[in-house]
Specification:
about 425 residues, mainly alpha, 13 helices, Heparan-alpha-glucosaminide N-acetyltransferase catalytic domain-containing protein, HGSNAT_cat, transmembrane
């Protein structure tokens, strides 16, 4: 979604983050200090960022390519209130998108050329999924869904760039606070017709009401309508709350760009600050989620937004330490390094072309679900029933294996693209 990291990683001869040890080797008068280096030299790309980005696309593929109603818990999104691992996948991608903005725009100026790239990227993200949504609705402009996954990413991306480039740091954080207060005020204080105030049920909340007024029929229409309004899980108001997740990803990225080569203990500065931020967001998230403000992905409740920051921050923290900080060879743990490389390699392949792989996945789903029929069922259903359910028998197992099959398919696509040095940047 955002360009490469060349602005902050332009000297391959220097370590990403230098580490200084108090351990010295003394040789009489000729005292020499031997710095024990457990850190790798700078690479052209931040390996942990590509790996985590790819991991989130892994998750999207597994979650979105389930067949039937039998879905195992880790891959099954919560229907309303609650939390599952599947609920954290998309927020992690938004968080990583914000992180990438800090890297991409660190040395950028508020110029016409910079904004040309930002606006171009925003429009491409927004209208790629608009086209896919329109295609999925057989090009019916009256009822096709306007919002969606890429649209939410586009909006968060644009306003993150706007705040980052145009405001000083104090006003950036004030802007984040104002967005947060506005979201909470709308969801809890707006008197919604036929629903009242602070009603957070599935089809009777302020977000669903405003979406229905703004988009009319052009929203996601779930079959279980138990109130006056359809709730679009990527609606306009919940996108305001998802901006919290995106912006805090940017804050994590800002910490990285500020401290990664400042001094010998730069890695400690980064890791300690990330840990403190994780704790700072996790504690109130769990407290609110367990009491007055339940976790809810479909309206991106405030507690959910806080939790996604903590969870995503923990993920990038662990990946950063394992992939970019520790030099396993110096620790004589070459086997560990090889295992890590083997695990993250397919993630990196997908992480270098995430939007392309995601868009291709949605395109194939639409073709197989809505455009090709075999008998009375779609080709999608026929593939699942004939190739998986017929011999696996168990619906949960068949659906899981079905999604894994699609994951392998897209890993192969990503590998071919990487092998041929095809990197599609928006």
């Amino acid at each position: 979604m955002v360009p490469n990291y060349k602005n902050i990683q332009d000297e391959e001869s220097k370590p990403l983050i230098e580490h200084s040890s108090s351990t010295h080797i003394n040789h009489g008068k000729d005292t020499k200090t031997k710095i024990i280096e457990y850190l790798k030299p700078v690479q052209r790309r931040m390996g942990s960022l590509d790996a985590v980005r790819g991991l989130t696309i892994f998750g999207m593929i597994l979650v979105d390519n389930q067949a039937g109603n039998d879905v195992i818990w880790p891959l099954n999104e919560t229907e309303w209130n609650g939390l599952s691992t599947a609920d954290l996948i998309f927020p992690s991608f938004i968080f990583i998108s914000g992180f990438s903005i800090a890297l991409a725009l660190k040395n950028s100026k508020n110029t016409t050329s910079t904004w040309y790239g930002i606006i171009r990227r925003t429009l491409l993200l927004f209208f790629i999924q608009c086209f896919l949504n329109l295609m999925g609705d057989h090009f019916n402009f009256t009822t096709f869904r306007i919002m969606g996954v890429l649209q939410r990413i586009a909006i968060c991306y644009f306003f993150s760039c706007l705040s980052f480039l145009c405001f000083p740091i104090f006003l950036q954080r004030l802007f984040l606070l104002s967005v947060t207060v506005t979201y909470i005020s709308i969801m809890y204080a707006l008197n919604v017709p036929k629903c009242g105030r602070a009603n957070l049920t599935q089809n009777c909340n302020a977000g669903a009401y405003i979406d229905s007024k703004v988009f009319g029929l052009n929203i996601m229409k779930e079959s279980n309508l138990n109130g006056p309004y359809y709730n679009d899980p990527e609606g306009l108001i919940s996108t305001m709350s998802s901006f919290i997740t995106a912006w805090m990803g940017l804050e994590f990225g800002r910490i990285f760009t500020r401290f990664y080569k400042k001094h010998d203990f730069g890695n400690t500065d980064i890791i300690v600050r990330w840990i403190l931020l994780v704790i700072l967001f996790m504690v109130p998230a769990i407290s609110l989620g367990a009491t007055v403000m339940p976790f809810n992905k479909k309206i991106w409740s405030f507690s959910f937004a806080l939790f996604t920051v903590g969870a995503s921050g923990s993920l990038i923290l662990i990946a950063f330490i394992l992939i970019d900080v520790i030099d396993w060879e110096s620790l004589k743990c070459e086997k560990v390094r090889k295992i890590i490389d083997l695990i993250i390699k397919p993630m990196k392949w997908i992480g270098q072309n995430p939007i392309t792989i995601y868009s291709l996945m949605v395109f194939i789903e639409i073709i197989l679900m809505y455009y090709i029929n075999v008998g009375s069922n779609s080709l999608w259903v026929q593939i699942y029933e004939k190739m998986y359910l017929s011999w696996l028998k168990n619906g949960y197992l068949a659906s899981t294996v079905f999604s894994i099959g699609w994951l392998i398919f897209f890993i192969l696509i990503a590998y071919i693209m990487q092998r041929n040095k095809i990197f599609i940047k928006l």
